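Researcher: Structure prediction, please.
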Amino acid sequence: MARPYPWYYAVNDRPVMIVLLPDGGSDALVFDWATGAFVPDRSYFGRVSDVGIGKDVDSLTKQEFDARVGELRRSISLRRQATPIAWERTGDGEYPYRFVLEGRVLTIRVNDFPAEPLYTLIVDGVDAEHLDDWPAAWVRPPIPLA
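Model: Predicted structure follows.
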């Protein structure tokens, strides 16, 4: 009897999850270091085979996997919030700020506060984290004089 999906791994400390697709197939979802999201990357199928376990691949429980992902996301958030970013105005009230960092497009969305967090940081079109406070290292552009 096959074990149920999803399957959880760390490949060179990168979280990877094998999930069942609606059509009965499966896909490899790999942790994206910039966003903290999971993106499809089928090249990891060969890496998580039984042959790779114990070399550069660790099989994880769901609890171990969730703990690792949570810690990575916290680390990414702290590092990103400590990075000095001089945001540019976009002219869009809902998405007022933009910046390109290491080739990634960062955008700030203003949410429906207080029902939602004040801001959402979007990295390359993916919601990366919610913020209730503006990080001290980030610089908003000056308000243009009329």
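Model: Residues 62-82 form the longest helix (21 residues).
Researcher: Thanks, that helps.
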